Amino acid sequence: MTTSQEELLPGTRRALLHRIAVAQSEGRAPSLVASVVRGGRAVWHGARTSVDGEVPDQDVQYRIGSITKTFTAVLVLRLRDEGLLDLTDPLEKHLPGTGVGEATIAELLAHSSGLAAESPAPWWERTPGSLRPELSDVLGERPRVHPSGRRFHYSNPGYTLLGALVEKLRGASWEEALRREVLAPLELRRTSVRPAFPHAGGWAVHPWADVLLPEPAEDLGRMASAGQLWSTTGDLARYAVFLTHGDDRVLSAETVREMRVPATPVEAADVVDGYAYGLGLEIRHRDGRLLVGHSGSLPGFLASLTIAAEDDVAAVVLMNCTSGPVASAVGADLVRIVAEAEPRIPEPWRPLREVEPTTLELAGQWYWGTYAFGLRVTADGLISLEPLSGNGRRSRFRANGDGTWTGLEGYYAGEVLRAVRRADGTVSHLDLGSFVFTRQPYDEQAPVPGGVDPEGWRGIG
Question: Are 47 and 55 within 8 A, CB to CB?
Fold first, then answer.
């Protein structure tokens, strides 16, 4: 019950089908649909259902819950990229009067604002949004449960505030801004705030009996920006391509990469579980692979969007049950099956078109004290500095145009590397955030660390 695609080998397609079949059967999901994306396009779709003769295809809508938050984050980052706000701005600067305006926009995006996880009772997911017409109704009398910026604490009201921020700065509803700025450019025609036929109905499955109960599909009102959207495997497959590579009509590749970087403190248990949160995206370490995306749930529905950017593989999993298979685990397994069975074929190596002699002069072996490093000039125009032992601090560096380079990741992210030259123009050493790298360990001619003993290197007799 899968659409055959020539891009994947038959064995891979069968393994994918087997995984979702086991999930649907053992998890007792009324239906489960999934898609796999590779190389910028959907290459597989599969479905399992309990209703004979009604197999959902790529255009059947399911509710996607908190995957909605990734769309809200995209809208906020568009505002940042246009210069209308800064992520370090307090919310009060742009949306005054909330009572929690000292929280920064970055903290709201990364769930480190200290706001409560949920709105006050009654449970917002099972009641009409009309019960919470104002932001004060969403926040309640005790909106903050932790100090801002100190810890990760998932907050649905936080993303409600971000939706209101979008509305304030755009002068339009969150729904209108989303449709105009994200859904239309990316051609996500089957993603909407309200269900559009054909769509799945939401079900609760009895925990101790194989019987069903229909779940209501409430309109979340003010809280729509935290979890309202309906979508399809077809649309979310295209959206996964965008979150992997960017699209200048919406967000640049650089900005979507920024979304995928951990942006908040995590609890010890999260470190053990390999979990972190970026700017609107969940980050997981599973099976030796870095996965980004988001899970989602609302009464009657479970969803997951999982992306392995390094493998250029993504998976979408949608189900119409309140509890059942762990959607993020199924998505991670679909990614793993493809990435391991059919590893990504790298692009052909190609040399640089040209290289500055002053840059090429830096290539080769360097020493930080007695630690050996290799500096390489790469075909993407960057330089990389890596420990030759395989362990230690490493980073790529981007040229600044003035003979200096800025670190892009790890310990050296944001740090400046420069070549210090002698009076005759030859390179004496590299200065990297005050660390001195020399061509020989403890080079006597270099500044600190320099030669550390006048008698030099020696043996012990």
Answer: yes
Q: Residue 344 and residue 354: Cα distance in Å, rounded?
A: 28
Peptide linkage before 10 cis (omega within 30 of 0): no
Nearest Cα neighbor of 91 from 160, 175, 137 is 160
Q: How many helices (H) and strands (E) does the chain have?
A: 13, 20
Residues whose CB is less than 8 angstroms from the CB of residue 441 and which lie 6 or more positions away in sequence, other chains included: 367, 369, 370, 372
According to DSSP, the residues that pair with 115 across neighbouring strands are 144
Are the CB atoms for 124 and 130 separated by under 8 Å? Answer: no
3-state secondary structure of 461: coil
Kind plus residue range of the DSSP H or E element containing 373: strand 371-377
Query: Going residue by residue through the chain (461 aa), what tens digit of pLDDT does each one get?
Result: 344 445 899 999 999 999 999 999 999 999 999 999 999 999 999 999 998 777 899 999 999 999 999 999 999 999 999 999 999 999 999 999 999 999 999 999 999 999 999 999 999 999 999 999 999 999 999 999 999 988 999 999 999 999 999 999 999 999 999 999 999 999 999 999 999 999 999 999 999 999 999 999 999 999 999 999 999 999 999 999 999 999 999 999 999 999 999 998 878 888 888 999 999 999 999 988 999 999 999 999 999 999 999 999 999 999 999 999 999 999 999 999 999 999 988 889 889 888 999 999 999 999 999 999 999 999 989 999 999 987 889 999 999 999 999 999 889 999 999 999 999 999 999 999 999 999 999 888 877 767 778 888 888 87
Q: Cβ neighbours of residue 297 under 8 Å, at least 6 residues apart?
A: 65, 66, 303, 322, 327
> Among 266, 288, 289, which residue's Cα sits nearest to residue 276?
266
The set of residues, in sequence order, having a beta carbon less than 8 Å from that of 406 and lying 6+ positions away, is 397, 398, 400, 414, 415, 416, 417
What three-state secondary structure class fits 309? Answer: coil
pTM over 0.85: yes
